[in-house]
Amino acid sequence: MAISLKKDGNDTDDVTSVEEVGLDGFDTGFTTGTSGDPSDESSKYYGGIGDGTVSTDKINDLPTYTGPTYIPTEGAGVSNQKTRSIIYKIIGILIIAVIIGGAIYGINYMVSSSGKDISNQLILSEAEIGLNLGITFEDNENKVKSVRQYTKGKVTVRSGGDLNIIYVDGKQVGVNTSSRKYRFFNVGINDAEKDAIDAMTYKYDDSMIVINDIMDGESDTYYYYNKKNNDCLVLVVNNRSNRIADMTYYTDYRKMTEQLSGLDDE
Fold first, then answer.
1. What is the C-alpha separation between 214 and 234, in angstroms, rounded?
2. What are the start-end ranges of the H helices in the chain?
3. Pairing of strands 219-226, 163-168
């Protein structure tokens, strides 16, 4: 079935008719008003671009919309932001200070030596040493294997306060330490070997060395001895760092070295 458009009396395709009557029969006053003047206020489009009452240049000059802009002012928000910024800076400074302090401490710990010199205590009994230094000693079987000695007797050790009292067949024969807390004859743990020998106050006649003695073959043991006094100072030196790792003072040098061969028995 065909569809046809119904035309009213004003319908026409004639150009002249469109100009007089208006498109599709609309009143021309819709655009030009009753007077035909585009600026006539009776026009339906009065005030629009087409009637010449608005300048297109001014429209082009209008600012571009970019959305709302927030400008913070002095108040709680700004104050809190400044406070947080200061706190973050303080925390950052503290972290840097801790790192630097830790590095300095680590370096000093690696290269420095300290401790109280207790040379005057080394010839005293366990009871006297404990009383003078405020130490209580207890049996320490695990320490026996790390004591540098070459005796034929039975060695026992009693430990306390980073000091070890050494016995052979029940007789006290020496004092040992591997702690930086104490010094023997001005020698301390972690002293460089050369510095330790130069500063050592122990009076010895001679010395000998036992190579790769302990510490998994990474150390040498030096015996500085005095035959007249029959005592000795034993220093264990770490071969990697060339620093003192352990030291012992013996009051009976001959007993503690009786299994070593090649010694002068004069």
1. 13
2. 15-21, 29-32, 56-60, 76-111, 126-133, 141-144, 193-199, 253-256
3. unpaired
Return all residues near 46 (Cβ < 8 A) that are at least 6 apart.
33, 38, 39, 40, 53
Helix (H, G, I), strand (E, B) or coil at 139: strand
Instruction: Report the DSSP beta bridge partners of residue 165.
Output: 158, 175
**Closest residue by Cα to residue 150 from 63, 76, 89, 208:** 208
Q: Whose structure tokens read 């040493």?
A: 129
Q: pTM above the 0.90 mark?
A: no
pLDDT tens digit sequence for 126-172: 999 999 999 999 999 999 988 888 999 999 999 998 999 999 999 99
Q: Which is nearest to 31 in space by CA: 46, 14, 16?
A: 46
CB 161 within 8 A of CB 175: no
Which residues have C-beta within 8 Å of that of residue 138, sequence separation ≥ 6? Answer: 158, 159, 160
Q: Judge whether residue 120 has pLDDT over 80.
A: yes
**Cβ atoms of residues 251 and 123 within 8 Å:** yes
For residue 32, count other CB atoms closer than 10 A to its CB: 20
Q: Are 231 and 213 spatial neighbours (Cβ–Cβ below 8 Å)?
A: no
Q: How far apart are CA 141 and CA 145, in angstroms?
A: 8
**Is the Cα dihedral 139, 143, 144, 150 positive or negative?**
negative
Beta bridge partners of 160: 163
DSSP state letters, 53-105: SS-HHHHHTSPPP--------TTHHHHHHHHHHHHHHHHHHHHHHHHHHHHHH
What pLDDT shows up at residue 195? 94
